[in-house]
What does this fold into?
Amino acid sequence: MSARTPVEADVCVIGAGPAGALVADRLADAGRAVVILEAGPRFDPADRLDRMERALRPAYDRPAVWGMGGDRDAHSNSGERPYPLNHARVKAVGGTTLHWQGMVMRLHEDDFRSASARGVGTDWPVSYEDLRPYYAAAESELGVAGADDNPFGPPREKPFPMPAFPPSYSDSLFAEACEELGIAMHSVPNARNSESYDGRGACAGYGTCQPVCPSGAKYDAAVHVKRAEEKGATVIDRAPVRFLEHDADRVTAARYTTPAGETHDQEANAFVLACGGVETPRLLLLSESERYPDGLANSSGFVGTCFMEHLFAGMGGTIEEPTRQNHVGFLTSESHQFYDEADADLAPFKLEFFNYAGPSPVESALSGDDWGDDLLDRLRAESGTHVGIGALVEQLPSEDSYVGLDPHVTDDRGLPVPDVHWSVDDRALRTLERANEVQREILGELGAEITWTVGPENTGPAFHHMGTTRMGEDPEESVVGPTLRTHDLSNCWIAGSSVFPTGGAVNPTLTIAALALKVAESVDASL
It folds into this structure.
């Protein structure tokens, strides 16, 4: 059910991305009265094909495809590295899963015990074994296609819900080179249907997974929002929450603004913040009071601190044979071989073998001004022989990397915008060099002419913001406890990547989903 004004609710979930959607669905299934407040709009699935076509045109950048930008989404960057926040998120029902690539791996066992096993970072207050049943449930909820062929991954308890996508043609070229070098390749778990699943059809191969899946084969969180509504939940979209009303140890209401400029207070017995790694700490900081002068739930001083990303390392070029790129818009093979070699000096990293290296013929055609045979000759010269390898690298949590408020810049509601102060540690920079070395060896074995490199000097984010309301046992060094309830507030939980104490080097959404199921369990038990 959709609404614009407050409703009676047991639970108020703020944010309709994967974390909030899963929490809402589970609690609605348990018979709880749930209301979801979402800052962005609800998009019509019928518009996806038009969005895909716009995404292919040079005039549209990635944020514009899903309506990101302008005063509503203004932000600042005060750190040593600029952070393109609006490339990293979508404000809408479905959240960032509307434009994500859809890879879903479990963190490795040592990711949960970084301080103990690697001598750096911090240990999580939960172990891999603690989270393992939630991982399995999350894979079923999202619909994951995969195979148990990763010899370096953590132990599993049952097969994936769907079979893995077969290796692409260019994967076979990489496989020959990697075999010569003794590097093992394996499949990539994907939250997209390799066969019909959960009422959605199999991947149709549009190749535009980022930023649009027109077929709906790739999971997005609108799936669970719809399910929650069918069980009685209420969704109020275009309702950005500006303040959390509270007393000494409870949140009493979420104050939001409608498109007409009206302000309402949504009351509930329990509140779940699922606004992402930037907007969640921002909301807590905006909710300062005499009781919480440094921001709500911030007696530890850790709200907004330890902002983490996955650093990108990449390399690519061309070889003297067709590689059939841009037929598949996602990864089908990767390697975690170097992941658990991590220690205090080098971070974990994983290798990704691209299926979309070089320009697509459509992008080339739309960006040129030639026609006929000239256009055909250019497309043949520009595409078809490219190869590329990426890598994700962990960065350590640090108080030098944080999300704060910019008192000099305000959004469309007159509120201070988030200031992302992003810095990168030396361990991550060293690991970027190491990843580049491995990539250069593989491309050298392929006989590639290397034409581009992304490494320590020009690295960028993988758009996985994490760590700004960290989980821990000690209330003086963390924001939430092992059940994801805030230490300071008895009826407020946080769901999402902001609770990660460390980031590991795999895509975070499956862990977000697993923790969301854990949050729902905790909230339900408390009511």
About this structure: The mean pLDDT is 95. Residues 28 and 231 are 6 Å apart (CA to CA).
